[in-house]
Design a protein that fits this description.
The chain has about 300 residues and is α/β, with parallel strands linked by helices. It is built from 14 helices and 7 strands. The longest helix has 22 residues. The chain is globular.
Length: about 300
């Protein structure tokens, strides 16, 4: 693969809650691959106005002979990102990781709920997301400014204005949006279930896709995003996440570790009710069938029995 000078050769696009953290970790182990120190650069969705010289700094320490990449999971469901990547890196290779869309949506809701920026129940959050889709279509039209406003609200007020539980699981729509710009051979799709069953096999398929040594074996301790109750979320809601985290920088590393261990309390995940699962499945049913046709694969394990 011809390497891009000072720019990435590939992207782990996501969507969120589909093992991008683990993939970033595994890919970074390969001697022929460079992954950005910061896992999610968020450049093409949040920092694009800072310009390409700013972005290139993420890759300036990479040697010329390695394949460079980054992992930003929100890129998957933001078509304006697809256009931006193509304009600067038209030969980029793209990695999508999919999972049961209902489970993905629920995992996203659990994370938002734990952080305090989602106040609604899972069912009500999906209903709000559906109502939002009647006004805002992520896959047609430019929502870049609305996205910037939403993400700013997350940092300053710990509030979300755009819910993406549904958009993040519409995989056929995501693929259509990226295929408008990128060739089929530049897109590689993996599945979370396969990563769990045989990490080595999945990683070898990615290494082959990236044209690096596919005999390399990663250290197979899976990186997991644990479900934590964040004791700081009430402060996030009062003062804003950015202000609280900025104040935290005043402490030394030892004190920070103690604070983190105090505020992040592991807790059991709330199980999804069967009625909520059925409701969510009906939202994703059409897209699941579309994905089956698109990829010529069966996703019966994602379907609910009638």
């Amino acid at each position: 693969m011809e390497k891009n000078k000072s720019l990435p050769d590939f992207f782990v696009l996501g969507p969120p809650k589909t093992a991008s953290t683990s993939l970033h970790y595994y890919l970074g182990q390969h001697p022929e691959i460079f992954m950005t120190e910061k896992k999610e650069t968020r450049f093409f969705d949040l920092d694009y106005d800072k310009g390409m010289p700013f972005y290139k700094k993420y890759f300036e320490v990479a040697t010329a002979d390695v394949s460079k990449g980054e992992a930003t999971p929100t890129y998957a469901f933001l078509p304006f990102v697809a256009r931006r990547i193509y304009e600067h890196i038209p030969n980029a290779k793209l990695i999508f990781s999919f999972r049961d869309p209902v489970e993905r949506a629920y995992s996203g809701w659990l994370m938002r709920s734990a952080k305090g920026n989602e106040k609604l129940s899972f069912r009500n959050a999906l209903e709000e997301n559906l109502e939002q889709r009647s006004r805002i279509d992520f896959f047609s039209g430019d929502i870049s400014q609305a996205w910037l406003d939403d993400q700013s609200g997350l940092g300053k007020r710990n509030e979300i204005s755009l819910r993406t539980y549904i958009e993040g699981g519409l995989y056929s729509e995501q693929l259509k949006a990226y295929k408008k710009f990128f060739h089929e051979e530049n897109i590689h799709i993996i599945f979370l279930d396969d990563i769990k069953k045989n990490t080595d096999s999945v990683m070898k398929s990615i290494f082959s896709f990236l044209c690096v040594d596919n005999t390399f074996t990663c250290v197979s301790d899976t990186v997991k995003n644990k479900h934590n109750k964040n004791r700081l979320k009430f402060l996030f809601n009062i003062f804003g996440k950015e202000a609280v985290l900025k104040a935290g920088k005043l402490f030394n590393s030892g004190m920070k570790e103690k604070i983190i261990s105090f505020v992040k309390v592991p807790q059991e995940k709330i199980k999804m009710s069967e009625s909520d699962r059925k409701y969510a499945y009906e939202i994703f049913r059409k897209d699941i069938f579309s994905l089956e046709k698109m990829l010529n694969m069966s996703f019966d394990n994602w379907k609910m029995k009638d």
